[in-house]
Design a protein that fits this description.
The protein has 30 helices and no strands. The protein is about 70% helix and about 0% strand. Keywords: Cell membrane, Membrane, Transmembrane, Transmembrane helix, Transport.
Amino acid sequence: MTATHGSAARRFPWPAALGRVVAGAALLTAVGLLPWLSGTDPALTVLRARSADQDPTAQQLDAIRAQLDLDQGPLAHLLHWLGGDAGVSWVSGEAVLPQITTALSVSLTLMLGALVVTLLVAALVCARTVVLGSRRRLGRGRTGTTAAVLASLPKFLLASVLATVCGVWWGWFPSSGWEGPQWMVLPSLALGIPSGAMIGGMLDQSLPAAFHEPWARTAHACGLPPSYLARNALRRTLPGVLPQFLPTVVALVGGAVAVEKIFNIPGLGRLALDSAIAQDLPVLQTTTLALVLLGVAAGVVVRLLRHALLGRPLRDGALPTLHRPRLVPPRSLRWIAGGCALVLVGLVVAGLLRDPLHVDTAARLLRPSAAHPLGTDSLGRDLLARLGHGALRTAGVAFGVTAVSALAGLLLGMVPRASAGLTEVVSTLPAVLAGLLIAGVTGPSVFGAACAVCAVGWTPYAAQTAALLEQERASGHIAASVSLGAGRAHLLRRHLLPAVGPALLRNALLRLPTTVLVLASLGFLGLGEQPPTPEWGRLLSENQPYVELAPWTVLGPAGALILLSVLAVTGSTLGRRER
């Protein structure tokens, strides 16, 4: 049954191709409607983008409408663009294609550098497991705190620290601009370290199951070298993690807006955001098309790599299932979880006893003291108070968005042939651009920001679910269950969901801090949570400009995010082992 299903999927690839076409057309149409969805006059936005200090007059607005043919409506512009004419920028008057080509070359170069860092960090995170497992000495589990800490580092905050310390103070690398290879070192580190920690943490959790398969025991007994076991264990587990490279690669190109701004890099993500805010439709549509094509190409490459690694067992339905062994929990696991919970609860309770909205301009950017344990921000507000009062809202919205995204990804990933194209296309859409589209309909609000993150946040979970289910369906015990009369409901309940659930939960918990920061970036752009509401991500965004002058302004919310991430990961590990 599984072999027949696999051959049918290869013989009839049209569902995925049709999904790519439909999803891409819908996305490009929605982007083309952005100036009319936003509820603001496109002519007014373009005029302000051209001359921010100029007061608009009716004659000037009419002239811009006539020049850009805005009275013809969105359909005429979309058809003209689909005809193959990218046109010129509404704001600068320059040709669009040269801008896109230059920005894309910069972003692809930065992406390659960030991918190198991602792979190195992922290798370092799981190096201990590989070494011990290849020597059959893997008897104790991992806490996962290293991966959780690194994955929870805000990329824009890490970029600010690297630019200040390594670029300005020490002068090791340039901290601004884009002129040569040395200019890509710091932004590649800022993008690659959190991404590598996330992928490395997922791989580290999958490797013990591969090292405890029968082939590994036999190879060790026959005296084969540890390198043989390590190489084949990685080949066995990488296919389940490879789909996470799809959203990671696209995020390094289209979602690196904050990092590109901090280092003044003229990349594609920054160009997409600037054109969306200015409603520069020709540039925005062509930029979106470039991101869509990049996502589809990355999806095809990832799929080919997975099938090459799995090889004949996947095609023949003879792929054994990975079962994680029972490892001895580290002694420090409970202490780490308890310590994180105690510190986090203490910070929140202490903050709730203070006023988060009290402004004291005479106490701006004060250092931590007895009166202000975490210091004050640029308006003299107590950071501990804002941290405590923003805890429930931050954690509640982030957990809700993560749960909805994971559930949607699980459901869509269970129909991979129908959702593969949709996943590849939607993963190319930066959350900020999705926020602009949704805010045009619902208006700026925390609900709109949550919907925007959910609209794009399900793609990593769908890609992971589809990959794991494909491997599970190709296992021998599935064929045996079917031959014994097991129905689809039994297979789903007893085999498929148990194979996907733990890995999906781990992925969701590792991505929790990223969700908080994406919601914060939408609020910082006026698309989500509005000031003066205290929220952890907003605290980071608001105080990021003061990292060099007053670094304590970001230590509190950054530390709280790290504590939340470590607590979530260690808590899930303890829960799984106790069951």
